[in-house]
Design goal:
Layout (H helix, E strand, L loop, with lengths): L11 H11 L6 E2 L16 H13 L12 H12 L8 E6 L1 H16 L4 E6 L3 H9 L3 E6 L1 E2 L4 E2 L1 H8 L7 E5 L12 H14 L2 E6 L8 H14 L3 E6 L12 E6 L6 H15 L6 H10 L2 H33 L6 H4 L4 E3 L4 H11 L1 E2 L5 E3 L7 H12 L2
Parallel strand pairs: 1-12, 3-4, 3-7, 7-8, 8-9
Antiparallel strand pairs: 2-10, 5-6, 9-10, 11-13
Helix pairs in contact: 2-10, 2-11, 3-10, 4-5, 7-8, 11-14, 13-14
The protein binds pyridoxal-5'-phosphate (PLP) and (2S)-2-hydroxy-3-(4-hydroxyphenyl)propanoic acid.
Pyridoxal-5'-phosphate binds next to helix 4.
């Protein structure tokens, strides 16, 4: 059997991590994989996570199975954090999943269960794993226009134009905030217009929200998801705790499925539980438990929010510094979009050749589509990056 296997294509982002490690230059700068790093290049464990882990070590009395949905307290805490009071929580089914990726996968499993012929729409571009999972599951895939390469902003007219081709039953995958890989986001008003179109066409929206708290703030970043939840009869939401709680390797995510009525919820919840059982049985608990401990304890939550805010403001400061430096060096406002983008990433509109040249000449590692991780910078490396961009990008 195994001798029949063919090599699979490598993940370009993870491959870049390897290239970076192998580069001996001391001045190299890692702007690749989407992991938060502080000014020293370290990915810290958040204070509230450490505190919750200590408390858990003291208080946890069993490691027995939880429930197929995961701990219901986690689902409740995630509904509150992501959805707020935009919908009656009695309409929301929720399962813990292995990371936000698990939540996306389970959302697509749900769509496939209803209709294996369904078409899933993603933005062009999107996080590459969206497309590879859709294809791996043999679902139909379509793309909607999203990014204007010249201005590095959202081309909203083109987006709406492509979504006119939506059919009833299609699934539209939207980034809830902090679009990956571009950093360019819809305004709340535009999300509202997208929601109206999705409703008119009888399609289903699937929101992937992996960076809540990294853009404009914890509440602000949830605003689009909440608007969609309040406007649409049904909604799927895949939420990740990897970045905003800094618990990447714990694999903590949540899929929420909002039914039109509370009467539907038991069947929706039962189906989510069933999907967990078919795919991996009980979901991981450790990260989910830390998250629900933090979100339900006033002091832990306040400390977590304060640290998350430091992280967010740090990235915004780096954005502004980089945009200012590029304005000075290029004597133009061409790169002003970097300060207007939100989240960890900005796609800066450099060609693959220019990206490679910056890697070879300056040891700057960004993804081939010219996506850079803002958190890979610090106040000292921003001028080096700005100089490299100004020298390399036509
Ligand atoms: N969705 C997007 C757009 C992402 O960038 C990520 C990032 O890692 C995820 C989902 C899921 O992350 P994880 O599975 O590590 O929680
Ligand atoms: O886009 C990123 O960099 C993050 C991390 O297969 C990531 O979302 C990258 C690739 C991958 C899984 C996670």
């Amino acid at each position: 059997m195994l001798s029949n296997l063919k090599p699979q294509p490598a993940d370009k982002i993870l491959q870049l991590m390897q290239f970076y490690r192998e580069d001996p230059r001391e001045t190299k700068i890692d702007l690749g994989v989407g992991v938060y790093k502080d000014a020293t290049g370290h990915t810290p464990i958040m204070r509230a996570i450490k505190a919750a882990e200590k408390q858990l070590w003291d208080e946890e009395t069993t490691k027995s199975y939880t429930a197929l949905s995961g701990d219901p307290a986690f689902g409740a805490a995630m509904k509150a954090m992501v959805l707020g009071d935009s919908v009656d929580h009695a309409r929301v089914g929720a399962i813990a999943t292995p990371g936000g990726t698990g939540a996306v996968r389970q959302a697509l499993e749900l769509a496939k269960l209803v209709d294996p012929e369904t078409t899933v729409w993603t933005s062009n571009p999107t996080w590459p794993n969206h497309v590879s999972i859709i294809k791996f599951m043999k679902l139909n895939h379509a793309e909607y226009a999203y990014f204007d390469e010249a201005s590095c902003t959202v081309d909203f007219d083109a987006m709406m134009d492509s979504l006119k081709a939506l059919k009833a039953g299609d699934v539209v995958l939207l980034h809830g905030c902090c679009h990956n890989p571009t950093g360019a986001n819809l305004t709340l008003e535009q999300y509202g217009l997208v929601a109206d179109l999705i409703a008119e066409k009888g399609a289903t929206a699937l929101v992937d929200i992996a960076y809540q708290g990294f853009g404009d703030g914890l509440e602000e970043d949830a605003a689009a998801t909440r608007l969609l939840a309040s406007k649409l009869p049904e909604l799927l939401v895949a939420s990740s705790c990897s970045k905003n709680f800094g618990i990447y390797r714990e694999r903590t995510g949540c899929l929420m499925a909002i039914s039109e009525t509370a009467e539907q919820t038991p069947v929706t919840q039962g189906t989510l539980n069933y999907l967990n059982r078919q795919n991996y049985s009980f979901p991981p608990d450790h990260g989910a438990r830390l998250v629900s401990m933090i979100l339900t304890d006033e002091a832990l939550k306040a400390d977590w929010m304060a640290e998350l805010e430091e992280v967010r403001l740090g990235m915004l400061g780096l954005r502004q510094q980089l945009a200012d430096e590029l304005k000075r060096l290029t004597n133009s406002d061409r790169f002003d979009f970097i300060a207007r983008h939100r989240g960890m990433f900005s796609r800066i509109g450099a060609s693959p050749e220019e990206v490679l040249k910056m890697r070879e000449d300056f040891g700057i590692y960004m993804v081939g589509d010219s996506r850079m991780n803002i958190a890979g910078l610090n106040a000292e490396t921003v001028p080096l990056l700005a100089a490299a961009i100004a020298k390399t990008c036509k």
